[in-house]
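quick one: heme C bound model?
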Amino acid sequence: MFTRNALGAALLVLVAGQVIAAETPHLGTPVTPADIAAWDTSISPDGTGLPPGKGSAAQGKEIYALKCTGCHGVAGEGKPADRLTGGQGSLATDAPIKTVGSYWPYATTLFDYVRRAMPLNEPMSLTNDEVYAVSAYVLSLNGLIGEKTELNAKTLPKIKMPNHDSFFIVYPGNLK
Ligand code: HEC
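yep, here:
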């Protein structure tokens, strides 16, 4: 009897499973690896994930003037949005000024952030070359690279940000 009941229960589950499958609304489309790649844009501090492309501050100057100045100021001084330049040496004072130049530990974060989020009114609209160039311009406004330094997947991770050493890993054992 037990066996028969167990068989009956198994059949019931099978039938219920078929009913559930038949009742799915068939919404959406399967996600392809190419779809995922378009959104999988995270870049590690060591540069893993940086795409091909290149740009210098000289090239980024015009892009910045057209697409960033309105919110971040002509020289990154801010207003109405965040200040992007200056503040180096101010972090330990009573009036710390946190900017890309004074606070951010990794230059690669600038590429990642600008590519995914800026300009605020048109995110993900810049080409990779434009993101390299405008990132170079912001770094040059902070005095961290020269006008002609070419940023690409190899050179960008090598830039040492002024505040890099003030960040430390609290739980190094958790790193894999
Ligand atoms: C329409 C306004 C607007 C435009 C245009 C714009 N930004 Fe921004 N930006 C913002 C705002 C607002 C924030 C803060 C967002 C937040 O904190 O969530 C921000 C944040 C940033 C930050 C991070 C600052 C920090 O220290 O946290 C960077 C870097 C940046 N923008 C770069 C750019 C660049 C480069 C461009 C041009 C390609 C650009 N932005 C265009 C409004 C704008």
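Residues 7-17 have pLDDT under 50 and may be disordered.
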